[in-house]
């Protein structure tokens, strides 16, 4: 299965550019500053799959010197529109050659939902292996992915009720989900990938998990939760080259 890029679309880019860190998305980003403080040394960061730059700007606020990369021209255009002084680069065919010089070794490589849209064992392994080569000696990859449960329940930010076939999906299958926080209600087509299979991908890429988080809502947040207090919609992995992993 090839890379599925349903985000190479001007209308979708316009909608995603206006997304906030609210509702279900709040849980994806809430704990990141503490995770960075615990696991990341240094301030040089790469935002892999930066989209319209929301996560890149978040990393800047966290104190990182960030380069954002994406394969979708409409997303990079919107990122530059919202952050004219930002370092955003279009990476064609996942070619990281321009990032591989010694001075560009990254202390943090951040991936926010990017691997939800990347299918196939070989492609996932290759990309993680290539990203691992860009890390500094103590560098970490922090990757947020959608938990399989996100595709079978209702959420403050998402709906899957129109796609009951998601319940029968296996690792590598296409699943569909609607983001209700934006005006564009066309479903995203993601690739289901289970926890044990991500662990195997990392292993094949000579990487290992340092820490794993499944953030839940406390119920005290100013959002109308649906299932977020009892079911984690996201998984956050902290990953290192095998010599640095537990």
What would you say this structure looks like, in words?
- This protein is α/β, with parallel strands linked by helices.
- Helix content is 26%, strand content 25%.
- It has seven helices and ten strands.
- The chain has helices at 10-16, 23-29, 32-39, 54-61, 73-82, 121-133, 195-204; strands spanning 44-48, 65-70, 87-90, 106-112, 135-146, 158-159, 174-179, 188-191, 207-213, 234-241.
- A seven-stranded mixed beta sheet has the order 3-2-1-4-5-10-9, with helices on both faces. A three-stranded antiparallel beta sheet has the order 6-7-8, with no helix packed on it.
- Strand 2, helix 5 and strand 3 form a beta-alpha-beta unit.
- The longest helix has 13 residues, at 121-133.
- It is globular and about 45 Å long.
Summarize this, please?
By secondary structure, the chain is of the alpha/beta class. The chain contains seven helices and ten strands.
Give the H and E element order.
HHHEHEHEEHEEEEHEE
- What is the average per-residue confidence, as pLDDT, rounded to a whole number? 91
From the N-terminal CA to the C-terminal CA, the straight-line distance is 31 Å
> How big is the Rg?
17 Å
Number of strand segments:
10
Unreliable stretches (pLDDT < 50, length at least 5) are none
* Main sheet record: 7 strands, mixed
Structural class based on helices, strands and sheet pairing: alpha/beta
Strand content: 15-25%
What gross morphology would you assign? globular
Strand order of the largest sheet: 3-2-1-4-5-10-9
Instruction: Tell me roughly what share of residues is in helical segments.
Output: 25-40%
